[in-house]
C-alpha cells in the first residue's frame, strides 16, 4: 500500500533505559504512510527517553517518524525573519534534539539552549515541553503541525494550553514537524548558554535511564525528597535508584520493566509527598 516498513521488534532497543518487550513498529516516512499507520490503534514513539515499556510489550502499532519527518530545513523564512529574529522552515518531529542543538549553535541561533542534554526527538520534546530551569522547547516554537486520524492541523503555541512539562497536545496527536522561532546570537554566546544549562547536569548518572522519574512537586526537587527518604542506591533486580541523583532509576544491565516499576512503587510508598510520575508507562 503506502510502503511503510513494518517490523516486530523489541522496544528495549528504542528506549534509553533499555527495557521493554515487542511491538509492531511502523517506520513512517511521509504523511501517506503515517495515515495508513493510524488506521488501527497506535502509539507514537520518539527518542524513547521518557518511556518505560512493559516486558510484555504493547499490542498497538508503534509509530516511528523517519524519512521526511526526520529532516530539518533551518533556512530562515524571509517573510517572517529579520536581522534579529529567525523563523525557520520545517523541522521534522523525528529529528534528534541533540544534533539540532549542535547545528543551531553553529548557525548562531538561540532559544533552545535550555534543553541541552535532553536525549529526545523534536516531536517528543515538544509533546512533553521538555526543558530545565534554563529553558524549554516552547521558548523556540513558532508553528506546529499536528496529525490525527481526523486530519492535519497547523497551530501556534498560543492555540495550546502549554506549561511545565506539558504541551497541552492530547496523547497520540502526532507532532510531525515544527517551525522554530529563534534569535540571532554569536555562536560563542549560544555555546555559553548551552554550557551553563549542561553544568546543571553534572550530578546526573551516566547509566541507561529514562530520565527523572517524578515531576518536581510544587517546585521542590523530587530527587531531594527521595534522597531524604534514604533511598539512593536501593536496588530491585538490576534496576537501582541512582546514588548520584535519587530521581533517576538506572539499568545496571539486564534490568526488566518489572524491576523499574517495583522501584517506582517503593519510592511512592516511602516518600511522604504525592509524586506525579514524569515518565510514561506503556501500556
Ligand atoms: P518518548 O520517550 O519516545 O515518548 C514520550 C511521550 O512523547 C510519549 O507519550 C510519546 O507518545 C510522545 N511522543 C513522542 N514523539 C512524539 C511525537 N512526534 N508527537 C507526539 N507525541 C510524541 N526531560 C526534560 O524535560 N528535561 C530534562 O532535563 C531531561 N533530561 C533527561 C536526561 C536523560 C538522561 C533522559 C534519558 C531523559 C531526560 N528527560 C528530560 C526526559 C525526556 O528526554 C523528555 O521527556 C523528552 O521530552 C522525551 O522525548 P522522546 O522523543 O524521547 O519521547
Ligand atoms: N538533590 C538532592 N538529592 C538528590 C537530587 C537532588 O539533594 O538525590 C538536590 C540538589 O542538590 C539540588 C536540588 O535537589 O539542590 C535540585 O536538584 P537538581 O539541580 O538536580 O534539579 P532537579 O530539580 O532534581 C531538574 C529536572 C531535570 C533537569 C535538571 C537540571 C525535573 C523533574 N527535573 O532536576 O530534568 O535535567 O533539573 O536542569 O524537572 C527530566 O525531566 O527527566 C530531568 C532529568
Q: Could you characterize the architecture of this molecule?
A:
This protein has 283 residues and is an alpha+beta fold. It has three domains: 5-68, Uridine Diphospho-n-acetylenolpyruvylglucosamine Reductase, domain 2 (2-Layer Sandwich), CATH 3.30.43; 71-199, 2-Layer Sandwich (Uridine Diphospho-n-acetylenolpyruvylglucosamine Reductase, domain 3), CATH 3.30.465.10; 217-282, UDP-N-acetylenolpyruvoylglucosamine reductase, C-terminal domain (Uridine Diphospho-n-acetylenolpyruvylglucosamine Reductase, domain 1), CATH 3.90.78.10. The protein is 21% helix and 26% strand. Helix 2 (97-107) runs antiparallel to helix 4. The two termini are 28 Å apart. It binds flavin-adenine dinucleotide and uridine-diphosphate-2(N-acetylglucosaminyl) butyric acid. The site of uridine-diphosphate-2(N-acetylglucosaminyl) butyric acid has 18 residues, from helix 5.
How many individual domains? 3
User: What Rg, in angstroms, do the CA atoms define?
Assistant: 19 Å
Any idea what the shape is?
A: globular
Q: Give the biggest sheet.
A: 5 strands, antiparallel
Average pLDDT, to the nearest integer?
Answer: 97
List keywords for this structure.
3 domains; binds uridine-diphosphate-2(N-acetylglucosaminyl) butyric acid; Uridine Diphospho-n-acetylenolpyruvylglucosamine Reductase, domain 3; binds flavin-adenine dinucleotide; five-stranded antiparallel beta sheet; 283 residues; Uridine Diphospho-n-acetylenolpyruvylglucosamine Reductase, domain 1; four-stranded mixed beta sheet; alpha+beta; 6 helices; 16 strands; Uridine Diphospho-n-acetylenolpyruvylglucosamine Reductase, domain 2
Amino acid at each position: 500500500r503506502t510502503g511503510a516498513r513494518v517490523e516486530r521488534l523489541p522496544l528495549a532497543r528504542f528506549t534509553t533505559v533499555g527495557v521493554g518487550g515487542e511491538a509492531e513498529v511502523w517506520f513512517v516516512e511521509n504523511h501517506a504512510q503515517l495515515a495508513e499507520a493510524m488506521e488501527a490503534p497506535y502509539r507514537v514513539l520518539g527518542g524513547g527517553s521518557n518511556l518505560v515499556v512493559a516486558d510484555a510489550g504493547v499490542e498497538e502499532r508503534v509509530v516511528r517518524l523517519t524519512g521526511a519527518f526526520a529532516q530539518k530545513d533551518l533556512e530562515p523564512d524571509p517573510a517572517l525573519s529579520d536581522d534579529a529574529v529567525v523563523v525557520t522552515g520545517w523541522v521534522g518531529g523525528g529529528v534528534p534534539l541533540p544534533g539540532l542543538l549542535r547545528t543551531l549553535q553553529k548557525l548562531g541561533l538561540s532559544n533552545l539552549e535550555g534543553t541541552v542534554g535532553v536525549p529526545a526527538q523534536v516531536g517528543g520534546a515538544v509533546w512533553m515541553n521538555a526543558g530545565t530551569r534554563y529553558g524549554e522547547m516552547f521558548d523556540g516554537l513558532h508553528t506546529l503541525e499536528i496529525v490525527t486520524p481526523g486530519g492535519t492541523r497547523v497551530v501556534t503555541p498560543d492555540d495550546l494550553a502549554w506549561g511545565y512539562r506539558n504541551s497541552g497536545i492530547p496523547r497520540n496527536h502526532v507532532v510531525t514537524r515544527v517551525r522554530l522561532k529563534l534569535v540571532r546570537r554569536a555562536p560563542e554566546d549560544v555555546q555559553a548558554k548551552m554550557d551553563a544549562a549542561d553544568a546543571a547536569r553534572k550530578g546526573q548518572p551516566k547509566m541507561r535511564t529514562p530520565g527523572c522519574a517524578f515531576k518536581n512537586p510544587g517546585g521542590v526537587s523530587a530527587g531531594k525528597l527521595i534522597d531524604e527518604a534514604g533511598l539512593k542506591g536501593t536496588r530491585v533486580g538490576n534496576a537501582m535508584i541512582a546514588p548520584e541523583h535519587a530521581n533517576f532509576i538506572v539499568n545496571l544491565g539486564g534490568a526488566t520493566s518489572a524491576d523499574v516499576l517495583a522501584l517506582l512503587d517503593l519510592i511512592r510508598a516511602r516518600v511522604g509527598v504525592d509524586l506525579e510520575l514524569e515518565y510514561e508507562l506503556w501500556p
